[in-house]
Amino acid sequence: MRLIFLLPVLFSLPSFAADSKPLLPCTIYQPTTNAYYDISPIAVQPLVDHKKAHKDDRTESWHARGYDFGTNFTLNFCAPVIETLEDVVGIKENLLKNISAFYEWKGKKYSIGQASTELVFRGRELSLNYTNGSPCDSPTTHERRKLKHSDDDDDDDDDDKKKGDDDEDDDKKSHKGKPSDDDDVRRKSTLISLACDQNLPLGKAHISFIGSSPDQCTYFFRAKTMAACGGVKEPPTGLGAGGVFFVMYALPLHPTIYVPDLHTDSES
User: Fold this and answer.
1) Rounded distance between C-alpha atoms, residue 1 and residue 6, angstroms
2) Could you read off the pLDDT of 106-134 as tens digits, one per residue?
3) Mean pLDDT for each consecutive 10-residue tract of the chain (268 residues)?
């Protein structure tokens, strides 16, 4: 019954058809375990043709509380935010619909990254990175904001107004015009660490703001979701294209493979 010993070989054959297919957006294989990850279930999509929202449909992008940062953040996964944005600092009009994360500060909106569907594994850590946001603040502006937040003295209203005017002038200088992508301008970016949480429903996520770089040019978030738990794209015991080929052609032609006749007469 040599066929019995061939069964483990058949079911262990790689699925060449699955490996040859390009990855869908917002999906990735873990390099060491080959586990399949798909983050698209938590990507918020706008309602089409003004359809009425169902109970579980999100009508706004995800939010993260900034706590001591002084403002909150709005972001999406592998897709632009679904809110309508106008007059975002340092972003051209044709790129406004591709912003995946932003925040508002003193009445101005700042992009912290354009949409990306490319997931990255660094070891066992899964992450998503957005780049090409609004221009980073100049060191002068950043230092003045830092001093203003740490100042506990009661200043006169005229002094506060003067500092505010100085900050606004610095913003205008550092964000003057709308620079092209070729300009040597440091721009804000976002790094999202994706962590598995099996206690959340598949389409839900809990997002935390971790912090920002000292120059407030890079922003770090942690998103817990079941979509980051990984799994298999196909049943591991299923026959891929290679296995089917082997069964159809190799079995009939191989001279040493014996297929028993299950209908032979049992009488001696």
Assistant:
1) 10
2) 999 999 999 999 999 998 999 999 999 99
3) 45 44 88 93 83 72 95 97 96 97 96 97 95 82 47 48 50 46 81 97 95 95 96 55 44 46 48
What is the 3 state secondary structure string of the chain?
Answer: CHHHHHHHHHHCCCCHHHHHCCCCCCEEECCCCCCEEECHHHCCCCCHHHCCCCCCCCCCCEEECCHHHCCCEEECCCCCCCCCCCCECCCCHHHHHHECEEEEECCEEEECCECCCCEEEECCEEEEEECCCCECCCHHHHHHHHHHHHCCCCCCHHHHHHHHHHHHHHHHHHCCCCCCCCCCCCECEEEEEEEECCCCCCCCCEEEEEEECCCCCEEEEEEEEHHHHCECCCCCCCCCHHHHHHHHHHHHHCCCCCCCCCCCCCCC
Q: What is the pTM of this model?
A: 0.66
- 130/246 Cα distance (integer angstroms): 44
> Shortest CA distance to 151 belongs to which of 139, 163, 141?
163
Closest C-alpha to 103, from 128, 78, 124, 72: 72
Count CB-CB contacts under 10 A for residue 200.
17
Spatial contact of 202 and 226, defined as CB atoms under 8 Å apart: yes
CA atoms within 13 A on the CB side of 181: 5
